[in-house]
Amino acid sequence: MSQRYSIWSLLKHAMGGHKGWERAWRDPEPKKSYDVVIIGGGGHGLATAYYLAKNHGIRNIAIL
Ligand SMILES: Cc1cc2nc3c(=O)[nH]c(=O)nc-3n(C[C@H](O)[C@H](O)[C@H](O)COP(=O)(O)OP(=O)(O)OC[C@H]3O[C@@H](n4cnc5c(N)ncnc54)[C@H](O)[C@@H]3O)c2cc1C
Q: Which of 27, 46, 49, 53 has the fewest Cβ atoms nearer than 10 Å?
């Protein structure tokens, strides 16, 4: 990914109304099933997905 999140990049994008960011995630078709579905992609939702994968090997996760 070429997009950077430095303070300079944040400032530059802030001046442009944050309209120039590249999309940071894929847009896959949903699967038929998941082992875990997390509702809400805030800090806790993302951390839950991260640690389920890292500590428990669960990688078939959807975050809505
Ligand atoms: C103005 C402000 C300043 C703050 N400053 C700090 C700070 O400096 N330091 C600090 O540690 N904390 C700070 N906090 C607190 C911190 O932002 C929260 O504690 C933290 O974001 C909570 O994370 P969360 O994942 O539980 O919830 P959130 O970050 O609120 O994430 C919940 C997500 O779930 C999504 N969601 C909700 N309902 C649904 C649904 N039905 N379907 C799909 N998605 C859904 C929401 O859109 C959101 O993206 C601040 C909070 C506010 C409001």
A: 27
CA angle 42, 27, 2 (to 5 degrees): 80
pLDDT value of residue 17: 95
Q: List phi, psi (to 5°) of 56.
A: -125, 0
Which residue among 37, 44, 50, 63 has the greatest number of ligand 1 atoms within 8 angstroms of its CB, and so is best to mutate?
44
Dihedral angle over CA of 64, 18, 9, 47, nearest 10: -20
Name every residue whose Cβ is closer than 8 Å to that of residue 19 and which is 6 or more positions away in sequence: 13
* pLDDT score, position 12: 92
